[in-house]
Amino acid sequence: MNRPFFIALDFDEHAKRQRFLESFAAETLDVKIGMELFYREGLSVVHELKEAGYRLFLDLKLHDIPNTVGRTMRALAELDVDVVNVHAAGGKAMMEAALEGLDAGTRAGKQRPKLIAVTQLTSTDSRMLAEELLIDKAMDEVVVRYAQLAQESGLDGVVCSAHEVPLIRAACSDRFLTVTPGIRRQVDQVGDQVRVVTPGEAKALGSWAIVVGRSITAAADPLAVYREMNQDWKGATEH
Ligand SMILES: O=C(O)c1cc(=O)[nH]c(=O)n1[C@@H]1O[C@H](COP(=O)(O)O)[C@@H](O)[C@H]1O
Predict the structure, then answer these.
(1) pLDDT (tens digit per residue) in 39-86
(2) 180 CA to centre of ligand 1 in angstroms
(3) I need a surface site. Which of 21, 36, 131, 226 has the fewest CB within 10 A?
(4) Which DSSP state fits 2?
(5) In angstroms, what is the span from residue 121 Cα to ligand 1's centroid?
(6) Is any atom of ligand 1 closer than 6 Å to the C-beta of 7?
(7) Is the ipTM beyond the 0.90 threshold?
(8) Domains in the chain, number
(9) 61 is catalytic
(10) Where do the annotations place substrate binding?
């Protein structure tokens, strides 16, 4: 799977989501089904988008006791999506259980979905880390430690900000994947995101994949913005 550009399909209405995808009929898309879409449309949206041939990231960010996460991953494996995720904060035993569940649920002849762990959300800043979560280490240090823990647990990669990708690449194996949301063009509103970069910056920093939502989904001309951002992503030089 090379260098996905996942569009986050965070829509509050089935019709809006359908109209949006219809306007992209000429493009081969990678899409992300997040909590909003999944809790609204359920498994039917996964089946529909899978049958339509999209590369799928099912972003449900599991975070629970190891037994529950393992059994849930076993169920999710049957959906045959490309990427699923957990929160690294659930710890090593939980991540190992997630991987075991995913392995056990993957049907013969199918490829196991890639399993990645959210390190620190891209909406989290240093103040929140220290004052709300009571983590007294620097953001970079926390993210790299969580990435190492994910790697030790056998996971394929992490979700992080592109800012942290060079440090993760130095600390983890070459094959370890970095999926980076918090992507904006210079002209876009940042909104609730904190650790933000452009697609070109993400590529230059070494991100394996980017995740883009509102810059495209809330744009007046989503297709034009997608093409502009994809050009920036594909065209940038990796350092
Ligand atoms: O796991 C994710 O996809 C994720 C992790 C993270 O740290 N930050 C983050 O923004 N995301 C998701 O990426 C998408 C970003 O959307 P926009 O901020 O609209 O581009 C949303 O669907 C988030 O749920």
Answers:
(1) 999 999 999 999 999 999 999 999 999 999 999 999 999 999 999 999
(2) 8
(3) 131
(4) -
(5) 8
(6) no
(7) yes
(8) 1
(9) yes
(10) 10, 32, 59-68, 122, 184, 193, 213-214
